[in-house]
Amino acid sequence: MATFLYKLGRLSFRRRHFVALIWVALLTLAGVGAASAPAAGNSSFSIPGTEAQKAFDLLEQRFPGTSADGATARVVFKAPSGEKMTDPGNKTTVQDTVKELSDGSEVVRVTDPYQAKAVSKDGTIAYAQVSYKVSGMELDDAAKDALEDSAQDARKAGLTVEIGGDALQAVPHTGSSEIIGIAVAAVVLVITFGSLVAAGLPLLTALIGVGIGVSAITGLASALDLGTTTSTLAMMIGLAVGIDYALFIVSRYRAELAEGREREEAAGRAVGTAGSAVVFAGLTVVIALVGLSVVNIPMLTKMGIAAAGTVAIAVLIALTMIPALLGYAGRKVKPMGEKGKLLGRAQEKDQPAKPNLGTRWASFVVRRPIAVLLLGVIGLGAAAVPATSLELGLPDDGSQPTSTTQRRAYDLLSEGFGPGFNGPLMVVVDAKGSDDPKAVFTQTGDEIKGLKDVVTVTPPQPNKAGDTATITVIPGSKPSSVTTENLVHGIRDAGADIKADTDANVLVTGSTAMNIDVSQKLNDALVPYLVLVVGLAFLLLIVVFRSILVPLKAALGFLLSVMAALGAVVAVFQWGWLSGLMGVEQTGPVMSMMPIFMVGVVFGLAMDYEVFLVTRMREAYVHGEKPVQAVVTGFRHGARVVTAAAVIMMAVFAGFIGSSESMVKMIGFGLAIAVFFDAFIVRMAIVPAVLALLGRMAWWLPRWLDRALPNVDVEGEGLRAASGDDDGDRELVRT
Questions:
Q1: Any bridge partners for residue 425, and if so which?
Q2: Is 90 helix (H, G, I), strand (E, B) or coil?
Q3: Where are the extended beta strands (E) located within 566-660?
Q4: Tens digit of pLDDT for each residue in 403-453?
């Protein structure tokens, strides 16, 4: 592989005009496609195989024309102090508002609070529910404006009016912090390279790669039902890995220049060596992201595949466009150790070279490996403690900031009708195969009334055919509580008994039931996903490092960092530690897909640093250095660049903490803290400590396996042999 990539790097350097033209053309085509594509609607959230999804599908079949997936709005009214909603003046205002809301072209129906008995027992709070033909993201701005105008008119009459539901759903924004993250990355690159030109290359290529990836996602969003979170995730990961991959190749190019090689030769060798590490690091990220498809949640699968495509583009750009741009830059990109005017003069050649910080740190670790190892493991273990109280759920209006009308409507409904009113359960009774459907409907309602934590059970609402009915159940507890979850399971257990007696199917759906089913599905998929992703990456790393213990150590280190990161997420978003600093206005359960999503993404990113750092150690080892000295050599060449890459990735991820979307905010924080734990504690401390303790055994590989594995030559040994500068004998341990 190193030889092929070496030739690709030299070709890209020589034919830089052609390479640059290809990438600019692809960016232009993707941009035109995104601009001309129809606007994407709200991504459908389906969970195949769950009871909640089966009930939802049955509703669409048996109750046609009800727009089950359409947007809804709850317009909540509260009477002034000392008044009631049943007072004539307040009642007239509400009825006028209902009439005004009914005039919209996209409105299916509006319920009158007084006819639907939607007035609280104390008479102070009432609500009208508005149902629309289309989803919240597809709703016209005119319809949203009419909804808000109607509420404003009622406010002028003296009522407190708030609007809940998904009708006012807006496209999430990331805020200025995303730009700050990129600015931090730029500063780190300038400090690392000491040159604006060298620092600008990774940023430029990363932005081009993300531009192509996100534009392609935008262009295909409508056809493939991709939500807005998909492009945000692709941007987040694409920027981070795109900058890092380019950073490693540019850094290796400067090291090759420092050894006296011509620029074209240096570009070829940089792509042949560091580029090989980029390919395998990119493969681990792609494997982890595509592996999300085993969960069988379409939205998660699409997010993973789209982000994986952006990572693949980042790899291709790093291998081809970086050497092309290095050709354009010429002497403006200086050899390693030679700084430009921006950060001062370089060290004189006749002065003895001082050990850099990476060398000094690695020397310290290999002298005290046990102490460093214990300190790192205990520290990560302590950070992981909050993960033991992890609670999972999906965000609803209760997780919105208190400044939003959706959150205030949620609180008013809880005040007037109880906490469970915000998470009603819909029971679907399919009595098509029963002799007496009406009796089955009545029996089901009676069974549910006898369960604990049930506040209200509405009369069955049959369809026109009379073979299917819906029953709405209002729990006594809030949607995310364990008590409500137990109630869902209790209804399903009662449904099993009813099926045995009457051959009728009783299904529970609604947002609360869907959340419970999603959490269960994700929990069930976590172990198979870990086995698949970690197993494939383990095999890949065996090929890269030609070792058994190094990949095993990499996988165990990843588990430490991801558990510590989950603990930090729980501490901030569930316990509320530093929540004000992170902009978390409402604590609550951690998003259901967060653990499995973090496992996938963090594993891929963790292997990036493992590949980049340890390949330099192996390169030194196979060319004659002793195991402990190879660890120090790897840090001398790679620690500065890995540190810069980690800081850049943390800055990019942390930039998304400013998002208005709670899911994106949580992902940004989780990935940023995971990179910190993995890069600075696992890879910079635990890895060299373990390798120092293992010595030669770290690179042990059975002879039969060594013969069976393909030689991918990540270290560039073939390039050294071809140029006649192979300066050492292999010292690999074999059995």
A1: 473
A2: helix
A3: 590-591
A4: 788 888 988 989 988 888 888 898 999 988 788 889 999 999 999 998 988
How far apart (Å, rounded) are the C-alpha atoms in residues 365 and 684? 9
Tokens of 143: 């319809």
Structure tokens at 226: 């991709």
Each residue's pLDDT tens digit, 67-87: 555 678 889 999 999 899 999
| Sequence-distant (≥ 6) Cβ neighbours of residue 721 within 8 angstroms | none
Residue 431 near residue 504, CB atoms below 8 Å: yes
* pTM of this structure: 0.77
Cα–Cα distance measured from residue 192 to residue 412, given in angstroms and rounded to the nearest whole number? 54
- What tokens appear for 508 in the block? 């529970």
- Which helix (H) or strand (E) is 457 found in, with range? strand 454-457
Residue 577 in tokens? 């530690």
Q: How many CA atoms lie within 13 A of 435 on its CB side?
A: 2
Do 507 and 473 touch, CB atoms closer than 8 A? no
Tokens linked to 220: 């295909």
What is the rounded distance in angstroms from the CA atom of residue 336 to the CA atom of residue 620? 18
CA 255 to chain centre: 35
Antiparallel, parallel or unpaired: β 590-591 and 392-393:
parallel
- Nearest 5°: CA angle at 592, between 231 and 663? 35
Residue 637, judged by CB atoms within 10 A of its CB (0-12, 13-18, 19+), counts as: buried
63 confidence band (pLDDT: 50, 70, 90): confident
To the nearest 10°, the Cα dihedral for 67, 72, 78, 84? 0
Q: What's phi and psi for 506, nearest 5 deg? A: -115, 115
Residue count of the chain: 735
Structure-model confidence comparison of residues 720 and 30, the more confident one:
30
CA distance 93 to 90: 5
Instruction: Find where tokens 């900058």 sit.
Output: 243
Cα–Cα distance measured from residue 396 to residue 72, given in angstroms and rounded to the nearest whole number = 14
Q: How many CB atoms lie within 10 A of CB 328?
A: 14
- Please give the Cα distance from 474 to 485 (Å, whole number): 13
Count other Cβ atoms within 10 Å, centred on residue 117.
10
Alpha-helical runs (H) found in 291-338: 298-329
**Between helices 549-569 and 511-545, what is the axis angle to 10°?**
150
Tell me, what amino acid is at 235? Answer: M
Nearest one of 236, 237, 249, 265 to 202, comparing CA atoms: 249
Helix (H, G, I), strand (E, B) or coil at 337: coil
582-616 pLDDT, tens digit per residue, is 777 667 778 877 888 788 777 777 777 787 788 88
278 phi-psi bin (left φ>0, alpha ψ -120 to 50, beta other): alpha
